[in-house]
Fold Plasma membrane ascorbate-dependent reductase CYBRD1.
Amino acid sequence: MAMENFKQFLFALSAAVTVGFVSIIFVLRWVFYFKEGLAWDGGLAEFNWHPVLIVTGFIFMQGIAIVVYRLPWTWKCSKSMMKFIHAGLNILAFIFAAISLVAVFDFHNSQKIPNMYSLHSWVGLAAVLLYSLQLVLGVCIYLIPITPTYLRAAFMPLHIYSGLFIFSSVIATALMGITEKLIFGLKDPSYKDSPPEATFVNVLGVLIVIFGGIILWIATRPSWKRPSEQVLRSLPTNGGGSVGTEVSQHTDPKDNGDTRRRSGKLEDSGQVN
Amino acid sequence: MAMENFKQFLFALSAAVTVGFVSIIFVLRWVFYFKEGLAWDGGLAEFNWHPVLIVTGFIFMQGIAIVVYRLPWTWKCSKSMMKFIHAGLNILAFIFAAISLVAVFDFHNSQKIPNMYSLHSWVGLAAVLLYSLQLVLGVCIYLIPITPTYLRAAFMPLHIYSGLFIFSSVIATALMGITEKLIFGLKDPSYKDSPPEATFVNVLGVLIVIFGGIILWIATRPSWKRPSEQVLRSLPTNGGGSVGTEVSQHTDPKDNGDTRRRSGKLEDSGQVN
């Protein structure tokens, strides 16, 4: 099935994946080259799991989970399969975030550093708690088949908004975390003297912001939404090209524009089937 | 003219204004009660202009500027007048941000502290530069009457997205700034020991996040958009209640739902007239 502005979508998606991967490489290089590496020993190497798991799981994986419905190659898959992938990626991201919290609390406790004193920890814990609430509500409302359709429709704008809000809060929290770690971790030369580690990790922070910006752009383009199930079912499955297999040949936005226009109701509330 | 879910809108708007005002009171109390007050002396009292002007101008005023088209009381005003108010508030917010930058550079220079070494300064300066670009492009495309309509329509999704992205980046930058200032400014007891100032300013950070969250919620509800000029012109100006004057009497969403349904085209590209 053709997607409006397919080339722009492909460019945005490639940019997001590239910037995301580079961010992961950056956090690994930070930890292994500039810092103490990874271990589970109550020391700084245990703390290092915190940024690694956050960037890999809570930022990259959550970002991909957010845009997974947008991939036109998945439009031939059933909606329920895509929901399981969306939920699965988010649950995986949550597990990464939970382990990263254990790492930092364990590190603080063995080093006699207080927990939960900083704005970073306040906003971060709130984001993790809201994320788990979002997961539980999402599974109950959209994966358990008994929830009535009107409830699914009514909750969808809130589900989308809070997903993007939590994702943005996680990125803001990561920026505070980077700030804290560069101030506490760099002594002689300190953060102020801009040693190579400081500049390198500042770039990581900028990469995370760009990754977040691209994910939010993809997630908020109405024309890149997965078409409704009625539209997908109404498409010819032979002759005109089967659904989802000839994406690259149909990039003209006028090509099958009719199939993309949805009622204002669906546009407002998201798709609920 | 009636607005869908008017009571919810009123609640969200009141919450945003209240939380915004409380944030301003918090930053003033931080500066005057816990810190050195305000002055232009190259010392810490000059630095204090930085958080005060950012919270007042770059966060609160920018937030109000973003949602100003949503206020149903303004729907009787001409679109061009609302555009001038939107632009004017944003220009005022930019001036506040610019002075706040002068304050911090001037403070750094007189104290021999390096400039632009931190992630806070990188993301913050990028946000100010993008904001000025957004202002110039916004004025050229939407206020200068010669720009062709197709260009206004094509640019609108980008204008909306980048406005919200810059606003979110400013809030993320403020959270990094609070983190830096509490680490550098608190010694014996330090940030880790949670003195009253630390807890108080952490709350300020949380208030700023909540303010941002409410503004983004209001700005992204499709049913709260200012109706298109065609719709506003087609409304009766007597008998059925004149436009904009009887908002509180027409809160039933079914009341004049027909006037609110716009074409998919307008929904996607925003309103350009």
